[in-house]
């Protein structure tokens, strides 16, 4: 648990940030480098110290030069699956939250995003363990929100965007992105099972619909999960969906290899 600031510490930290953020008009990214902190830590400190955040005064305000629209593609469909899983759309930023052992997968997501829009995701280690990938961009936030993606997946009933259903390859790549983030594969006593987990009821219903359209035979929703259990479905998933998450791909390869 973070130590509570004393009155003197709070005054010193506030004066420091007022000087950097207000008087010198540095960006959060520049302050983070200057203080050797993560960008999220600087943002949180500004909020806690009641320093108004004025992005519009900063050079390159929220990367407005970024794309206002992206062409629909298989890579974009996979990234949408990632966002529906471990992603979060904030007011000004897009985030992907990963575990501390998913460094290789984080690099794959960065490469995928670079292919989609030619921009880099920033990398931040939260609590010196978990990995956060993010980009600040009002235009990209608007693009994904206009697509139907929402910040609160449960309260606002997140759905899979309609355009994903227009092409079989979009469906496959969406499922890959969603599996890589909120999916699991594990052994049962008499076989192997793949599960998809979400507290968003509508997202799970849409995911089940996608799996049915792709010829799989998923279970009905069970609390916050749906399952693939038939051996033929596991083999088909390995062949037609696969994974971009190295850890999950290794498990998928190993389990399916035992069926051969």
From TrEMBL:
The protein's matches in Gene3D superfamilies, at most eight in alphabetical order, are given as:
Homeodomain-like (1.10.10.60), Homing endonucleases (3.10.28.10)
Q: Where are the transmembrane segments?
A: none
Q: Which organism is it from?
A: Candidatus Yanofskybacteria bacterium CG10_big_fil_rev_8_21_14_0_10_46_23
GO terms assigned for molecular function:
endonuclease activity
Instruction: Provide a GO biological process annotation.
Output: intein-mediated protein splicing
Q: What is this protein called?
A: DOD-type homing endonuclease domain-containing protein
* InterPro entries named in the record: Homing_endonucl (IPR027434), INTEIN (IPR006142), Intein_endonuc_central (IPR004042), LAGLIDADG_dom (IPR004860), RNA_pol_sigma_r3/r4-like (IPR013324)
User: Ranges for the DOD-type homing endonuclease domain?
Assistant: 79-216
């Amino acid at each position: 648990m973070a130590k509570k600031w004393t009155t003197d510490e709070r005054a010193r930290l506030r004066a420091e940030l007022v000087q950097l953020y207000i008087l010198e008009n540095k960006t959060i990214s520049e302050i983070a480098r200057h203080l050797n902190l993560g960008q999220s830590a600087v943002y949180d400190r500004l909020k806690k110290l009641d320093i108004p955040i004025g992005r519009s005064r900063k050079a390159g305000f929220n990367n407005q030069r970024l794309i206002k629209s992206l062409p629909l593609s298989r890579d974009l469909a996979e990234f949408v699956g990632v966002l529906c899983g471990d992603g979060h759309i904030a007011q000004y930023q897009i985030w992907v939250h990963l575990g501390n052992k998913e460094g290789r997968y984080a690099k794959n997501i960065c490469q995928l995003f670079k292919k989609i829009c030619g921009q880099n995701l920033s990398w931040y280690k939260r609590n010196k363990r978990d990995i956060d990938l993010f980009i600040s961009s009002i235009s990209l936030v608007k693009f994904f929100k206009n697509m139907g993606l929402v910040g609160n997946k449960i309260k606002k009933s997140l759905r899979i965007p309609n355009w994903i259903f227009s092409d079989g390859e979009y469906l496959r790549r969406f499922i890959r992105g969603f599996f890589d983030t909120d999916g699991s594969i594990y052994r049962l006593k008499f076989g192997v099972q793949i599960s998809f987990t979400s507290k968003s009821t509508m997202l799970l219903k849409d995911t089940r619909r996608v799996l049915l359209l792709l010829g799989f035979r998923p279970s009905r929703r069970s609390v916050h999960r749906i399952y693939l259990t038939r051996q033929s479905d596991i083999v088909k998933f390995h062949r037609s969906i696969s994974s971009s998450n190295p850890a999950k791909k290794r498990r998928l390869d190993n389990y399916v290899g035992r069926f051969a």
